[in-house]
Amino acid sequence: MTTPHPDAQPAPIRVLVLVGRGRYEDPWHDHAATSHRLALLLAGLEVDGRPADVVVRSTFPDALDDLADVDLLVINAGTAWPGFREASIGPDDAAWAPFHARLDAWARAGGRILAVHQSANTFDDAPAWEQLLGGRWVSGESMHPPIGDATATLAAGAHPITEGLGQVDAFDERYCFLRVAPSSQVLGWVPDDDGNRHPVVWVTEAHGGRTVYSGLGHDVRSYDSPSHTELLLRAATWLLS
């Protein structure tokens, strides 16, 4: 039996931030800029004495080939530009199938996922993504009022992620009418312009892993909010605990 050296450093937490590109990017979101902010935020994370080692990578069919070595997968991707797939740009569905199969198997085997904003509207070529996420943006039903000052009310005392946080105030979009699985535990809501509450933050473990979804994070201004970044750090810490 090998005894660890007393000065040995704990293995770092491997965090992979997956950035929407090609069929998973859109005209409305600067995924590169927001992913950069996510990476900077999570680089300061430490859980049980283990520091974070953050890698940022665009969505390519081979982007998850080393997923088995990842502790936390952060999804910041969207839907394709209008006409992108119709123009047969980039790899086809068959070429992407191993990517989605790898993600599905890893997540169901206990993988930890933090998904933000437009991730509710990504991977529409992989129906199982909705199960891993615990919900979905539904074309023709889901929407958001114009971007502006937004407040997400958080569930008090319901979960370690939201305990004592109260609310998130950010300049952001308010996603409304998302389809949320009954098995998901909703932790945050935003109002529409009529004052009706809509789920925007939730957790799910129904698939065998752990996922936290936050509908916040339209652009970098949202990441200027201390309460938003605190929510994300709490989410990452819980996912890795």
Automatic annotation (TrEMBL):
UniProt-listed Pfam families: ThuA (PF06283)
InterPro entries in alphabetical order: Class_I_gatase-like, ThuA-like
Residue span, ThuA-like domain: 62-238
Domain of life per record: Bacteria
Matching SUPFAM superfamilies: Class I glutamine amidotransferase-like
Protein name: ThuA-like domain-containing protein
Species per Swiss-Prot/TrEMBL record: Isoptericola variabilis (strain 225)
